[in-house]
Amino acid sequence: MKSESLQDIILRVQEFLSNHNTVSIASKDNESVWAATVFYIADSEMNLYFLSSDKTQHIGNIQTDENVAITVYKDVEDWQSIQGLQGSGQVSEVRSSDRDKILADYIKKYTFLDELLQNPKDDQEKKIAEQFSSIGLYVYKPNFFRIIDNSISFGFKQELVLKDDSWAIKS
Protein backbone atom coordinates (compact mmCIF):
# COMPACT_ATOMS: atom_id res chain seq x y z
CA MET A 1 0.00 0.00 0.00
CA LYS A 2 1.33 3.42 -0.91
CA SER A 3 1.95 5.95 1.81
CA GLU A 4 -1.17 7.94 2.62
CA SER A 5 -1.27 11.63 3.40
CA LEU A 6 -2.41 13.05 6.71
CA GLN A 7 -5.72 14.09 5.10
CA ASP A 8 -6.21 10.56 3.70
CA ILE A 9 -5.76 9.03 7.16
CA ILE A 10 -8.07 11.58 8.81
CA LEU A 11 -10.70 10.88 6.14
CA ARG A 12 -10.29 7.15 6.75
CA VAL A 13 -10.92 7.62 10.50
CA GLN A 14 -13.92 9.88 9.82
CA GLU A 15 -15.43 7.35 7.39
CA PHE A 16 -14.86 4.49 9.82
CA LEU A 17 -16.58 6.42 12.60
CA SER A 18 -19.52 7.37 10.40
CA ASN A 19 -20.00 3.75 9.26
CA HIS A 20 -20.21 2.29 12.76
CA ASN A 21 -22.57 2.74 15.68
CA THR A 22 -21.01 1.49 18.90
CA VAL A 23 -17.90 2.38 20.82
CA SER A 24 -16.41 0.52 23.77
CA ILE A 25 -15.07 2.92 26.36
CA ALA A 26 -12.48 1.75 28.90
CA SER A 27 -12.31 3.81 32.07
CA LYS A 28 -10.70 3.44 35.47
CA ASP A 29 -11.00 4.60 39.02
CA ASN A 30 -8.57 4.16 41.92
CA GLU A 31 -9.39 0.45 42.30
CA SER A 32 -10.31 -1.08 38.95
CA VAL A 33 -10.85 -0.71 35.22
CA TRP A 34 -14.17 -0.99 33.41
CA ALA A 35 -15.41 -1.14 29.82
CA ALA A 36 -18.84 -0.18 28.50
CA THR A 37 -20.27 -0.15 25.00
CA VAL A 38 -22.57 2.69 23.93
CA PHE A 39 -24.13 4.11 20.75
CA TYR A 40 -22.39 7.26 19.51
CA ILE A 41 -22.42 9.95 16.88
CA ALA A 42 -19.25 11.57 15.55
CA ASP A 43 -18.65 15.13 14.43
CA SER A 44 -16.22 16.37 11.77
CA GLU A 45 -13.53 16.82 14.45
CA MET A 46 -13.80 13.08 15.28
CA ASN A 47 -15.30 13.79 18.70
CA LEU A 48 -17.77 11.12 19.79
CA TYR A 49 -21.02 11.95 21.59
CA PHE A 50 -22.89 9.38 23.66
CA LEU A 51 -25.69 9.12 26.20
CA SER A 52 -25.23 7.50 29.57
CA SER A 53 -26.63 7.65 33.08
CA ASP A 54 -24.45 9.24 35.71
CA LYS A 55 -25.22 6.16 37.84
CA THR A 56 -23.19 3.83 35.59
CA GLN A 57 -19.76 2.49 36.49
CA HIS A 58 -18.02 4.06 33.49
CA ILE A 59 -19.42 7.55 34.13
CA GLY A 60 -18.54 7.24 37.82
CA ASN A 61 -15.01 6.36 36.75
CA ILE A 62 -14.89 9.25 34.28
CA GLN A 63 -15.92 11.64 37.04
CA THR A 64 -12.78 10.45 38.88
CA ASP A 65 -10.49 10.32 35.83
CA GLU A 66 -11.57 11.76 32.47
CA ASN A 67 -8.88 9.82 30.55
CA VAL A 68 -10.26 6.84 28.62
CA ALA A 69 -9.38 4.42 25.85
CA ILE A 70 -11.86 3.48 23.13
CA THR A 71 -12.33 0.86 20.44
CA VAL A 72 -14.69 0.82 17.47
CA TYR A 73 -14.82 -2.34 15.39
CA LYS A 74 -17.03 -4.78 13.56
CA ASP A 75 -17.28 -8.31 14.92
CA VAL A 76 -15.73 -10.72 12.40
CA GLU A 77 -14.92 -14.43 12.28
CA ASP A 78 -11.35 -14.48 10.96
CA TRP A 79 -8.24 -12.49 11.82
CA GLN A 80 -7.70 -11.35 8.22
CA SER A 81 -10.98 -9.39 8.36
CA ILE A 82 -10.17 -7.47 11.53
CA GLN A 83 -10.55 -3.74 11.02
CA GLY A 84 -10.91 -1.30 13.85
CA LEU A 85 -10.09 1.90 15.53
CA GLN A 86 -8.35 2.32 18.86
CA GLY A 87 -8.02 5.64 20.60
CA SER A 88 -7.36 7.58 23.75
CA GLY A 89 -8.66 10.90 24.97
CA GLN A 90 -10.84 12.57 27.56
CA VAL A 91 -14.57 12.46 28.27
CA SER A 92 -16.61 15.31 29.69
CA GLU A 93 -20.27 16.21 29.95
CA VAL A 94 -21.63 18.27 27.05
CA ARG A 95 -22.51 21.89 27.82
CA SER A 96 -26.25 22.46 28.08
CA SER A 97 -26.10 25.09 25.31
CA ASP A 98 -24.96 22.38 22.82
CA ARG A 99 -27.27 19.62 24.04
CA ASP A 100 -30.34 20.18 21.81
CA LYS A 101 -28.38 20.23 18.55
CA ILE A 102 -26.37 17.13 19.45
CA LEU A 103 -29.50 15.22 20.52
CA ALA A 104 -31.18 16.18 17.23
CA ASP A 105 -28.14 14.78 15.36
CA TYR A 106 -28.28 11.66 17.55
CA ILE A 107 -31.96 11.11 16.65
CA LYS A 108 -31.16 11.72 12.98
CA LYS A 109 -28.60 8.88 13.04
CA TYR A 110 -30.70 6.52 15.16
CA THR A 111 -34.08 6.98 13.49
CA PHE A 112 -35.74 4.32 15.66
CA LEU A 113 -35.43 6.78 18.56
CA ASP A 114 -37.78 9.30 16.99
CA GLU A 115 -40.62 6.76 16.88
CA LEU A 116 -39.79 5.50 20.37
CA LEU A 117 -39.82 9.04 21.80
CA GLN A 118 -43.04 10.03 20.01
CA ASN A 119 -44.98 6.77 20.47
CA PRO A 120 -43.52 4.41 23.07
CA LYS A 121 -45.04 0.94 22.61
CA ASP A 122 -44.54 -0.55 26.05
CA ASP A 123 -43.41 0.26 29.59
CA GLN A 124 -39.73 -0.19 28.71
CA GLU A 125 -39.98 2.29 25.82
CA LYS A 126 -41.96 4.71 28.02
CA LYS A 127 -39.15 4.58 30.58
CA ILE A 128 -36.55 5.30 27.89
CA ALA A 129 -38.62 8.19 26.49
CA GLU A 130 -39.06 9.72 29.96
CA GLN A 131 -35.32 9.54 30.68
CA PHE A 132 -34.14 10.73 27.26
CA SER A 133 -34.44 14.45 27.94
CA SER A 134 -32.51 14.26 31.20
CA ILE A 135 -29.94 11.50 30.61
CA GLY A 136 -26.30 12.57 30.58
CA LEU A 137 -24.80 13.54 27.24
CA TYR A 138 -21.03 13.16 27.02
CA VAL A 139 -18.28 13.93 24.53
CA TYR A 140 -15.12 11.93 23.95
CA LYS A 141 -12.37 14.24 22.67
CA PRO A 142 -9.59 12.16 21.13
CA ASN A 143 -5.88 12.83 21.30
CA PHE A 144 -4.77 9.60 19.58
CA PHE A 145 -6.20 7.18 17.00
CA ARG A 146 -4.81 3.92 15.67
CA ILE A 147 -6.40 2.31 12.62
CA ILE A 148 -5.99 -1.47 12.46
CA ASP A 149 -6.67 -3.17 9.11
CA ASN A 150 -5.62 -6.79 8.68
CA SER A 151 -7.33 -6.87 5.26
CA ILE A 152 -4.35 -4.81 3.98
CA SER A 153 -1.76 -6.92 5.81
CA PHE A 154 -1.48 -8.63 9.18
CA GLY A 155 -0.86 -6.01 11.86
CA PHE A 156 -1.32 -3.06 9.49
CA LYS A 157 -1.77 0.16 11.41
CA GLN A 158 -1.81 3.90 10.93
CA GLU A 159 -1.63 6.32 13.86
CA LEU A 160 -2.69 9.90 14.40
CA VAL A 161 -1.71 12.03 17.37
CA LEU A 162 -3.09 15.43 18.34
CA LYS A 163 -0.29 17.97 18.77
CA ASP A 164 -1.05 21.63 19.49
CA ASP A 165 -4.69 21.18 18.38
CA SER A 166 -3.67 19.68 15.02
CA TRP A 167 -3.57 16.06 13.88
CA ALA A 168 -0.22 14.59 12.83
CA ILE A 169 0.87 11.17 11.63
CA LYS A 170 2.62 9.38 14.45
CA SER A 171 5.94 8.03 13.26
Description:
The chain is of the alpha+beta class and about 170 residues long. It has five helices and nine strands; from the N terminus they run αββββαββαααβββ. Strands 1, 2, 3, 4, 5, 6, 7, 8 and 9 form a nine-stranded antiparallel sheet that branches.
Can you tell me the residue ranges where pLDDT is under 50 for at least 5 consecutive residues?
Answer: none
Mean pLDDT: 94
Strand content: 35-45%
Q: What is the multimeric organization of the chains shown?
A: single chain
| Biggest β-sheet description | 9 strands, antiparallel
Query: What's the gyration radius in Å?
Result: 17 Å
Number of helical regions = 5
Terminal residue distance: 17 Å
Classify the helix fraction into a percent range: 25-40%
Shape: globular
Give the beta-strand count.
Answer: 9
H/E order of the elements?
HEEEEHEEHHHEEE
Structural class of the helix and strand makeup? alpha+beta
